[in-house]
């Protein structure tokens, strides 16, 4: 490790302290953290042990689709460093060592900034699904830096050098040194782009962000500037890039030595990922006034609203910055994450589209051995696993149905039970049989059928992802292709097939929940038609605390558990273990949490269906959970009220695990 490379830690610690002092963040427990790798001194690891973790989900490898891969920096007391590669076939619950990427060019070791990527299309002679790893080859004396690119065509078992992308000087952030850092990979239109931080033009730019492109992975085009500020001392760095809807792309980066000081997080949005240099920059400023610092990472998911959701991690704290307004600079909000903090945390959207994996390798300059771990953060509403739905095609307005073993569209509504699988994908079942692709085909136009369940079969599992307009796309895990009305037919009986994503209305489906899942297992969110979630503010465990509403559900106090009670259910907060209680006829009509009391009818609730929504009725008072005054505001209180069927009284109950 070279201290000068990460010399901004002092700044980072000041920012962390300021953020914690301004807005204390509670520790989240809902979905993690889960350990991927734990170095030990006995195995030869030295402080900080590990760092700079990255992860991907395979989408272009047939039966292996849905497999997770991770790599990260490791620090050993002796020998050349290498990037270990781990895989998980159960959505991250368990991990297995696969191989390591070693420096076959210089013998120095693959020391810093690993990036792992799956090719979505052919690149030269490399087929779609090839795994790539890039990173820095750096000698022990730090006299040079070189970005090397390796490829694997056997799911990470072996790695071969593709090319040297670029070379730089001494590995130090101090001027006038000329190193390069932090490669990031992206493929578009048959070209692979490598973005990286570049100090080689040091007379004019202490550091800038640049990219190069290749059509074969071996020969590289000229260096192109993406972020280069006029002031020589400016140091934009640590870029990441994600695709947005409407042909747009977002790049996030830290802007060290910015005019306002520190290393605040900035971003650019461009219509071409090769032309960020022509785009304007914006600083991320959150709704609470906080200004995230350092080492950002960006992803986008189509779920969460008319423009999907942009999610940005940063190294100045554990919270996420989210934006559901297409990157509007005035619309960034802070959301608590379940993942620990760390230097350059990575993000990855999970197959359900509403969950993001936050992965960390720990802090820089740790005086202990870091753990590589991750947690899952819910950033948008999702399906209720185990619930029953009807699926209506957005073009034909007919319903997904069956004719024997064939899958067709029909006027009648067929009930489908959608259930999350260990891979993170879903099965879509009716009558005990599951939606599948005939013969396991990966071809466009392959018909669909019902089959006896075969647990773990990729051809029987689907990513069911909400789109910005509220409809859903169902992508087969094996083929990656979408369920569609193949012939754009509008007559009952037309067969259903799979096809590559063509952004057609015949590939979009409206899901209506017609039956709740088993309520006595798992954790649930309870969301009203105002879009807000029932919660206990700040995770209070005090009896008598009044329930209220909040704009997201990602913490234990946003989650609820149901137990049967006297013909209804007791609804218990996942954090406090206390039961929702109707205090009517007390003044204020508050819905509070109190200790579980088997004899208290004011703790017994029934769920009353109303279309695809639910009214939650108290057995003791006969009144309903409502938000005071119908307020859309965060922290507006939950009260007991007569039946008025307003948006604040209609609820969607979703099982999330």
Low-confidence stretches: 1-30
Q: Give the fraction of residues assigned to helices.
A: under 10%
- CATH architectural type of the largest domain: 6 Propeller
- N→C terminal distance: 40 Å
Number of helices: 1
How many distinct beta strands? 48
Structural class: mainly beta
What brief labels describe this structure?
657 residues, mainly beta, Trefoil (Acidic Fibroblast Growth Factor, subunit A), 3 domains, 2% helix, globular, Ricin_B_lectin, lectin, signal, TAT_signal
Topology readout:
Blueprint: H1 9-22, E1 34-37, E2 45-57, E3 68-76, E4 83-88, E5 96-101, E6 110-118, E7 131-137, E8 145-152, E9 160-168, E10 180-188, E11 191-198, E12 208-214, E13 224-227, E14 235-244, E15 248-256, E16 265-270, E17 281-283, E18 297-301, E19 309-313, E20 320-323, E21 333-335, E22 346-349, E23 355-360, E24 372-378, E25 387-393, E26 399-403, E27 406-410, E28 416-420, E29 426-430, E30 433-437, E31 448-451, E32 462-466, E33 472-476, E34 482-485, E35 496-499, E36 509-515, E37 524-528, E38 533-536, E39 547-550, E40 560-565, E41 568-573, E42 579-582, E43 591-594, E44 605-610, E45 613-618, E46 624-627, E47 638-641, E48 651-655
Antiparallel strand pairs: 1-24, 2-3, 3-4, 4-5, 6-7, 7-8, 8-9, 10-11, 11-12, 12-13, 14-15, 15-16, 16-17, 18-19, 19-20, 20-21, 22-23, 23-24, 25-28, 25-36, 26-27, 28-29, 29-30, 30-31, 32-33, 34-35, 37-48, 38-39, 40-41, 42-43, 44-45, 46-47
Signal peptide: 1-28
Organism: Amycolatopsis tolypomycina
GO molecular function, one term: carbohydrate binding
């Amino acid at each position: 490790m070279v201290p000068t490379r990460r010399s901004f830690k002092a700044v980072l610690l000041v920012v962390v302290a300021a953020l914690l002092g301004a807005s204390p963040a509670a520790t989240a427990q809902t979905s993690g953290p889960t350990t991927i790798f734990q170095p030990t001194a006995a195995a030869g690891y030295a402080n900080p042990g590990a760092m700079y973790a990255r992860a991907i989900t395979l989408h272009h490898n047939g039966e292996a689709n849905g497999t997770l891969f991770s790599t990260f920096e490791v620090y050993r007391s002796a020998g050349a460093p290498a990037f270990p590669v781990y895989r998980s076939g159960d959505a991250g619950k368990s991990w297995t060592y696969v191989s390591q990427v070693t420096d076959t060019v210089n013998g120095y070791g693959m020391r810093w900034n690993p990036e792992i990527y799956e090719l979505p299309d052919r690149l030269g002679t490399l087929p779609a699904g090839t795994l790539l790893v890039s990173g820095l080859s750096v000698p022990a004396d730090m006299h040079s830096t070189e970005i090397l690119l390796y490829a694997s065509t056997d799911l990470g078992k072996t790695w071969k050098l593709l090319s040297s992308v670029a070379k730089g000087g001494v590995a130090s952030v101090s001027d006038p040194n000329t190193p390069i850092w932090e490669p990031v990979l992206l493929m578009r239109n048959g070209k692979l782009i490598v973005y990286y931080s570049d100090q080689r033009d040091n007379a004019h730019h202490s550091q800038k962000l640049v990219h190069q492109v290749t059509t074969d992975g071996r020969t590289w085009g000229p260096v192109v500037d993406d972020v280069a500020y006029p002031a020589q001392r400016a140091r934009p760095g640590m870029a990441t890039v994600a695709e947005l809807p409407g042909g747009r792309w977002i790049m996030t980066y830290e802007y060290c030595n910015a005019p306002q000081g520190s290393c605040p997080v900035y971003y650019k949005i461009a219509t071409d990922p090769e032309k960020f240099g022509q785009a304007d920059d914006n600083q991320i400023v959150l709704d609470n006034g906080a200004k995230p610092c350092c080492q950002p990472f960006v992803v986008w998911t189509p779920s969460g609203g008319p423009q999907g959701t942009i999610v940005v991690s940063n190294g100045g704290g554990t919270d996420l910055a989210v934006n559901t307004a297409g990157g509007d600079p005035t619309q960034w909000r802070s959301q608590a994450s379940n993942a620990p903090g760390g230097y350059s945390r990575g993000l990855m959207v999970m197959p359900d589209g509403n969950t993001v994996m936050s992965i960390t390798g720990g802090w820089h300059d740790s005086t202990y051995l870091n753990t590589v771990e991750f947690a899952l953060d819910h950033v948008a509403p999702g399906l209720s696993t185990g619930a029953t739905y009807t699926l209506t095609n957005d073009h034909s307005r007919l319903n997904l149905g069956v004719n024997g073993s064939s899958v067709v569209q029909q006027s009648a509504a067929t009930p489908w039970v959608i259930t999350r699988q260990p891979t993170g994908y879903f099965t879509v079942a009716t009558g005990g049989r599951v939606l599948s692709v005939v013969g396991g085909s990966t071809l466009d136009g392959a018909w669909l059928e019902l089959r006896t369940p075969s647990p773990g079969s990729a051809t029987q599992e689907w990513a069911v992802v909400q789109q910005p307009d509220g409809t859903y796309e169902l992508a087969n895990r094996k083929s990656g292709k979408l369920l569609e009305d193949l012939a754009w037919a509008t007559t009952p009986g037309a067969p259903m097939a799979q096809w590559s994503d063509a952004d057609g209305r015949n590939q979009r489906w409206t899901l209506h929940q017609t039956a709740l899942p088993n309520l006595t297992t798992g954790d649930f969110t309870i969301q009203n038609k105002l879009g807000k979630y029932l919660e206990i503010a700040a995770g209070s465990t005090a009896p008598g605390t009044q329930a209220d509403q909040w704009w997201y559900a990602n913490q234990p106090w946003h989650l609820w558990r149901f137990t049967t009670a006297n013909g209804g259910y007791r609804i218990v907060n996942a954090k406090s273990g206390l039961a929702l209680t109707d205090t009517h006829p007390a003044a204020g009509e508050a819905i509070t949490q109190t200790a579980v009391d088997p004899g208290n009818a004011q703790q017994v609730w029934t769920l009353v269906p109303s279309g695809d929504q639910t009214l939650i009725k108290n057995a003791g008072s006969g009144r309903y959970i409502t938000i005071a005054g119908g307020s859309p505001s965060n922290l507006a209180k939950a009260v007991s009220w007569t039946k008025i069927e307003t948006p604040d009284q209609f609820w969607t109950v979703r099982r999330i695990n």
